[in-house]
C-alpha cells in the first residue's frame, strides 16, 4: 500500500529515500549514435535543455534524431534523493521524474524547436502518468537553465494549453522549474543510455496528442 501511495504522491524531503554521496555505477563515455561525450565537457556555444516526458527510452531517441543536437543522456531530476538508482526512482520514494538532458547548438536548433518537439511527443495533461505508465516518475516536466528558457517554456505552455483545450483536452500538468542546485540532473545507469539504439525493438510509449504546438504564437502576441 505504501508503494501504491507513492505512485501518485510526491514524497516530501523527509519521506524520500536518503540516497548516497556519489553514484555507485558508471556512465558510458560517449553517445552510441552521435559519438560525442555524454557528461562533457561540452564545446563552447552549446546549451543544455532538460525535459521529462514519460519513459526516457523513447524520449531520448526523439531528441538525438533532431538536427543540431550534439548529445543526449537520460537521468533523474526534480526529486530529493541524491544519486538515486532506477529501482529507487521507480518506487516513487525519491520524487524524481525520468528526464532527458539535451545538449544542442542553438544556431542550428533553437530552444523553441526543442519545446515544440517536447510538447508534441507526449500528452502533458496526464499528471503522474503517461499512457499505461503510471507513477510520479512519468510526470511531464521542463527544467530550465536560464531566464530566457524559463520564459520560452512558460510562453509555449500557455500557447499550447489554449489549442489543447480547443481540442477537448484538460489542463497541462507540466512542471516548469529552474534546473538549479535544488533540482540536479543525476545520470541514469549505463544500460538506459541510448537504450533504443541498443535495443531497436525495445519498449517505447512515446506518442503525443496529435495536436500541433504553435511555437512562436505567444511571442508574436506579446
Structural descriptors:
6-stranded mixed sheet, two-stranded antiparallel sheet, 7 helices, 18% strand, disordered C terminus, Peptide methionine sulfoxide reductase MsrA, Met_Sox_Rdtase_MsrA_sf, EC 1.8.4.11, oxidoreductase
Blueprint of the fold:
Layout: H1 2-5, E1 47-53, H2 56-64, E2 69-77, H3 86-90, E3 97-104, H4 111-120, E4 129-130, E5 133-134, E6 140-144, H5 147-166, E7 175-178, E8 186-187, H6 195-198, H7 217-221
Parallel strand pairs: 6-7
Antiparallel strand pairs: 1-3, 1-6, 2-3, 2-8, 4-5
Number of beta-strand segments: 8
Amino-to-carboxy terminus distance: 48 Å
Largest β-sheet summary:
6 strands, mixed
Strand order of the largest sheet: 7-6-1-3-2-8
Q: What's the pLDDT, averaged over the residues?
A: 93
Poorly predicted parts: 217-222
Order of helices and strands: HEHEHEHEEEHEEHH
Helix content: 25-40%
Report strand %.
Answer: 15-25%
Helix run count:
7
Rg (C-alpha, Å) = 17 Å
Structural class: alpha+beta
Shape: globular
Report what the structure shows.
Its EC number is 1.8.4.11. It comes from Streptomyces celluloflavus. Residues 50-204 form the Peptide methionine sulphoxide reductase MsrA domain. The active site is at 55. The protein is built from 7 helices and 8 strands, in the order αβαβαβαβββαββαα. The protein has helices spanning 2-5, 56-64, 86-90, 111-120, 147-166, 195-198, 217-221; strands at 47-53, 69-77, 97-104, 129-130, 133-134, 140-144, 175-178, 186-187. The protein has a 6-stranded mixed beta sheet, covered by helices on one side. Strands 4-5 form a two-stranded antiparallel sheet. A hairpin with a 2-residue loop joins β4 and β5 (133-134). α4 (111-120) runs parallel beside α5. The relative contact order is 0.21.
Amino acid at each position: 500500500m505504501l508503494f501504491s501511495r507513492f505512485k501518485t504522491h510526491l514524497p516530501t524531503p523527509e519521506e524520500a529515500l536518503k540516497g548516497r554521496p556519489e553514484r555507485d555505477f558508471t556512465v558510458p563515455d560517449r553517445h552510441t549514435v552521435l559519438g560525442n561525450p555524454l557528461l562533457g565537457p561540452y564545446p563552447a556555444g552549446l546549451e543544455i535543455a532538460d525535459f521529462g516526458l514519460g519513459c526516457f527510452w523513447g524520449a531520448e531517441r526523439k531528441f538525438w534524431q533532431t538536427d543540431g543536437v550534439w548529445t543526449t543522456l537520460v537521468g533523474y531530476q526534480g526529486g530529493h534523493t541524491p544519486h538515486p538508482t532506477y529501482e529507487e526512482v521507480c518506487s516513487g520514494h525519491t520524487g524524481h521524474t525520468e528526464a532527458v538532458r539535451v545538449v544542442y547548438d542553438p544556431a542550428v536548433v533553437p530552444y523553441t524547436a526543442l519545446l515544440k518537439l517536447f510538447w508534441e511527443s507526449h500528452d502533458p495533461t496526464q499528471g503522474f502518468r503517461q499512457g499505461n505508465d503510471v507513477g510520479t516518475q512519468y510526470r511531464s516536466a521542463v527544467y530550465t537553465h536560464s531566464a530566457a528558457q524559463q520564459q520560452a517554456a512558460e510562453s509555449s505552455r500557455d500557447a499550447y494549453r489554449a489549442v489543447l483545450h480547443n481540442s477537448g483536452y484538460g489542463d497541462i500538468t507540466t512542471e516548469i522549474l529552474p534546473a538549479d542546485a535544488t533540482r540536479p540532473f543525476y545520470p541514469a545507469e549505463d544500460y538506459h543510455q541510448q537504450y533504443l539504439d541498443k535495443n531497436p525493438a525495445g519498449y517505447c510509449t512515446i506518442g503525443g496528442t496529435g495536436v500541433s504546438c504553435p511555437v512562436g504564437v505567444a511571442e508574436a502576441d506579446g
